[in-house]
């Protein structure tokens, strides 16, 4: 491979994943696997951000209802309202789907990186 023995990185690179060192005797390109892993991590982070945004919306909703005198929330402390909001959000379909998608994407990312690492180790042989 022309890049064997070099450090490679795309023009716009995430510093957590790049540069990628390519062993001198390497015959396969793992850039695609690394990009797949980065893509999956990005989706997982987006899911986490959406999950947190949903929780914030639920907290605001409960606080507004408490301020309006809703009998379910008016006697609760702010901590109790936050806990109630968390449980309401966690049990919602949207929160469950976002959490599952995040975990699935994180697992795929680990798989892609593990595969690339396995191939690299198998090419280098035992230490």
Descriptive account of the structure:
It is a single chain. Helix 1 (31-67) packs antiparallel against helix 3 (93-124). It is built from three helices and two strands; from the N terminus they run ββααα. It has a domain at 48-127. It has helices at 31-67, 78-90, 93-124; strands spanning 7-8, 20-21. A two-stranded antiparallel ribbon has the order 1-2. The relative contact order is 0.16. With 127 residues, it is mainly alpha-helical.
Explain briefly what this protein structure is.
The protein has 127 residues and is mainly alpha-helical. It has helices at 31-67, 78-90, 93-124, and strands at 7-8, 20-21.
In spatial order, strands of the major sheet run 1-2
> What is the rounded distance between the termini?
22 Å
Indicate the percent of residues in helices: 55-70%
Biggest sheet descriptor: 2 strands, antiparallel
Mean pLDDT rating: 84
What is the tally of helical segments?
3
Which class of secondary structure composition applies to the elements?
A: mainly alpha
Query: How many beta strands in the DSSP annotation?
Result: 2
Q: Which word captures the global form?
A: rod-shaped
Ranges where pLDDT stays below 50 over 5 or more residues in a row are none
H and E string:
EEHHH
User: How much β-strand is present in the residues?
Assistant: under 5%
Rg from C-alpha positions? 23 Å
């Amino acid at each position: 491979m022309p890049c064997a023995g070099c450090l490679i990185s795309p023009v716009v690179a995430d510093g957590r994943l790049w540069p990628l060192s390519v062993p001198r005797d390497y015959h396969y390109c793992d850039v695609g696997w690394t990009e797949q892993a980065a893509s999956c991590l990005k989706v997982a982070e987006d899911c986490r951000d959406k999950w947190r945004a949903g929780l914030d919306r639920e907290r605001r909703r409960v606080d507004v209802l408490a301020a309006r005198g809703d009998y379910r929330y008016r006697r609760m402390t702010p901590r109790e309202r936050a806990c109630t909001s968390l449980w309401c959000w966690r049990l919602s379909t949207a929160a469950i789907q976002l959490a599952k998608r995040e975990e699935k994407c994180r697992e795929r990312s680990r798989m892609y990186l593990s595969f690339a690492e396995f191939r690299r180790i198998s090419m280098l042989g035992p230490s």
